[in-house]
Amino acid sequence: MKSFTGKTLRWEWREGIIELTLDHEPANEIGTATLAELERFVAAFGVLAPETAVCIISSARKHGFSAGADLRELYRTAAPLSEKERLTRTRDFLERIHAVLNTIDAAPFVTIAAVHGVCFGGGFELALVCDIIVADKMARFAFPELRLGLIPGWGGIPRLKRDLGNAFVRDLLLTGRSVNAARAHAVGLVAQLAAEGEALRIARATAGQITKFNSATRAAAKKFIKPIPHEELRREIDLFCELFARPAVMAALKKFVEDSGPMPYLP
Amino acid sequence: MRSLEQTTQEVLDLASKHFNVPAGSLAPGDDFFKKLGIDSLQALELLSRLENHFAIELPDYEVQGVSDFKTLAERIQSRL
Q1: Taking the domains of chain B in order of start, what are their residue ranges?
Q2: What is the ipTM of this complex?
Q3: Model-level pTM?
Q4: I want to staple A114 with a disulfide (CB 3.0 to 4.6 A). Which of A65, A79, A199, A227 is the partner?
């Protein structure tokens, strides 16, 4: 399928380049609907990959790339369940999203995340599977999960560790703070900085360059330089589930979801 | 080195420009959430704008609970 328009995202293939656009109000929160459409996207790789040099992932939403997991949906669906059912459901979601992200991570074409605005939690994890991150200078990156009693669960820590120094990873993870694009560029997370509103244009220019290269060489180089940390990813799923079983997590989610103030509760 | 008054004025100028409100309509003691009618995502935009302008990093936890321009300027001043 060379083009698709769903409820949360769309993609279009044109002359060797796929553009996947996240477009789900208010800020591309990723829940079951987005997951199902991302599954549909990676299922199309069999058809798309042989003719694709680059995939650009970007957002059509004003506030940014993605605010992360849909915490409201997570709380709403988990709250009525027993602890056992909750864990089964959580693990199932994690297995599915890991399968999607691992497939994008290992895609035989080059992937570019064109990031503006917020790129938090699960949204950050989606950007991290991409080979290259181009960021608007107003972009912000964060893993706020510890503020809710969790760790990033969609491959965030193993992939951040793969790319960056452990000291920066600890700062980001253990404080839950957000960092701006300049800082993310300085530590090597962001490959290219863009002026405001220019990230997608720069990603397209970069894609244009990449399409000139031999596809087999490009795929071999990527595979050689970007191993997928499978073992750590498995351990992350187990640790996330272990932490998610604690009552403090549901209490924190409840407080966050029910807070109607301008700054929803985060410790 | 900027004085706190200068920093505060620059914060007010940046906020009025970013959120398209008339220059001079914002005061140091104003609650920016109420005055600008912004939410947490827009507050993050302001944070990015301020960090870029002052060439500093201002961790979220330092501005958590801050809602007036003067206190925000003080937090910035301590990082200059």
Answers
A1: 4-77
A2: 0.90
A3: 0.94
A4: A199
